[in-house]
């Protein structure tokens, strides 16, 4: 049996679609666990109505009396505590599953010794009613290089063109629309869609993976819990839970611990899940909690030390920290930007890293990045009296 844990908070307009997509998994022994974080809309009423319409499907419906601080950790962890299935999957109450790809991913997990299977996903832009690639889609090239070779070649050519334009200072002669589009090309995508990965592939989406190299590739991907289907015995053996607290982005340390703790895993490069982007979701207003990423950085560090894996993943942690330091600086309120520098230094001091070297690992080197460097090194001069 599989336990599908659905976390909800004021998702009345979408919860029926989310649950219907889970109920469409016919022929699979399943239970649906809905954990509502004290919604003030009709979310729970819709859930109860649907549960009555499907009497053959076990429903567990739990509603918190008060909204919990932070993100979905409390709700997700409650779901894990009552789950009875051999397998576990998460579903946000405003997202949806795709039945047939989900079948195939779950079937692969059942017929393996793997601890979990990582699935591919896309984003549904609610306001435009369109689907788009997930931001980390380029990372799948690590596991399916042949599938992405056309994109790899395209990005290699674009990188060459943009580099040439910069060298010969030709961009200023281009039409404004073309120049603006070139500026928007994501540098991180270039890093993920590296032509080198196509020429010397070493991983395979068809195999059960256990190497450090494979785990490092997986750590490049977005950390959302719903990106995976888990073997529950693995979850319970390591007592894996999302860290609870008054913060957002708690899926980051959960993702790191799941990957590092696993003996082996599968990747299923098929769109299995659609993540809805809409104005009302919690993360849309989460920039004020950006400093929480430094608490999660210490949780990840402590977990790596506990698993005896710090030396193995030290560089990967530094790259992750670099991108998130910059992300926090970019998204936090102006009055709190100084706090980003202070918290980043604290993390580096506690982990033995050097912040100036970490900062240079940031993959988004644009004007905001240069502003960050200017702020940091200006602050360093003030401290040293230079």
From TrEMBL:
Limits of the Glycosyltransferase 2-like domain: 3-156
Gene3D superfamilies noted in UniProt: Spore Coat Polysaccharide Biosynthesis Protein SpsA, Chain A
Pfam families in the cross-refs: Glycos_transf_2
PANTHER family: GLYCOSYLTRANSFERASE (PTHR22916), UDP-GLCNAC:BETAGAL BETA-1,3-N-ACETYLGLUCOSAMINYLTRANSFERASE-LIKE PROTEIN 1 (PTHR22916:SF3)
Protein name, as recorded: Glycosyltransferase family 2 protein
